[in-house]
Amino acid sequence: MQIEVSNLEKSYQNKKLITPVLRGVDFSIEAGEFVSIVGPSGSGKTTLLYVLGGLEDYQKGSVKMFNKELSTYTENEKSLLRSRSVGFVFQSYNLIPNLNVLDNVMLASVIGKQKTKAEIMALLKRVDMAEFADRYPSQLSGGQQQRVAIARSLVNDPDIIFADEPTGNLDEKTSHQILTLFKSLHLDLATTIIMVTHNEALTRYGTRLLSMRDGKVIKDEKLD
């Protein structure tokens, strides 16, 4: 198993107010799965994704990543995990505005596994953005910016890609184009993809669906 979650609990505390967000979550994910996590606002799906990606801590339960308890990772080990084994794609793209497409992806390579310009261009070609390598984010559509963000997430040859509402800022047509790209990466590279989405129509691109409500997984089903 790449990820094993057992009785996971997490709360946020603001002064004296404690708000439970995850309430005893249990599941495991095997290598090569494409898992969609859905649920209403406040169900805990994004918090769960951030915990799995090592971006947020948890109070109780167990999260094993690559057979090691995530809570025992040092901050340096978490940084190495994020720079070498996992990739992230966010709703807001998070591209650096004063860097062109090529340099935005090259920067991720400097931080993690270093790649040549030719290798970066090959990644951009995979996401159909090679011809825009010298463009700046402001010169791109939302869908094009997200393609660049996906290329950036692939720089370190990740075992897992965590995607948080990757189509949240996109129209329906572009959303399906982005999910088609994710599906091809999943099939061609055998990359595990864990995606949070509010759009249940997009879950058909995956192999598995986790439905959440009130901080719990209420349904776990395989998809054809």
Q: Helix fraction?
A: 25-40%
CA(first)-CA(last) distance = 21 Å
User: Under the CATH scheme, which class of the largest domain?
Assistant: Alpha Beta
C-alpha geometry: globular
Mean pLDDT: 94
Name the CATH homologous superfamily of the largest domain: P-loop containing nucleotide triphosphate hydrolases
Class by alpha and beta content: alpha/beta
Helical run tally: 6
Rg, Å, rounded: 17 Å
> In terms of per-residue confidence, which ranges show pLDDT below 50 for 5 or more consecutive residues?
none
Tally of separate domains: 2
Question: Could you explain the architecture of this structure?
Answer:
- The structure is a single chain.
- The protein has 224 residues and is an alpha/beta fold.
- It is built from six helices and ten strands; from the N terminus they run E-E-E-H-E-E-H-E-H-H-H-E-H-E-E-E.
- A six-stranded mixed beta sheet has the order 6-7-8-3-9-10, sandwiched between helices. A four-stranded antiparallel beta sheet has the order 2-1-4-5, covered by helices on one side.
In short:
Helices cover 31% and strands 29% of the residues.
Question: How is this fold's topology laid out?
Answer:
Blueprint: E1 3-14, E2 17-29, E3 34-38, H1 45-52, E4 60-65, E5 68-69, H2 75-84, E6 86-90, H3 101-111, H4 117-126, H5 142-153, E7 160-164, H6 172-189, E8 192-196, E9 208-213, E10 216-222
Parallel strand pairs: 3-8, 3-9, 6-7, 7-8
Antiparallel strand pairs: 1-2, 1-4, 4-5, 9-10
Please name the defining characteristics of this protein.
2 domains; four-stranded antiparallel β-sheet; 224 residues; 6 helices; alpha/beta; single chain; Rossmann fold; six-stranded mixed β-sheet
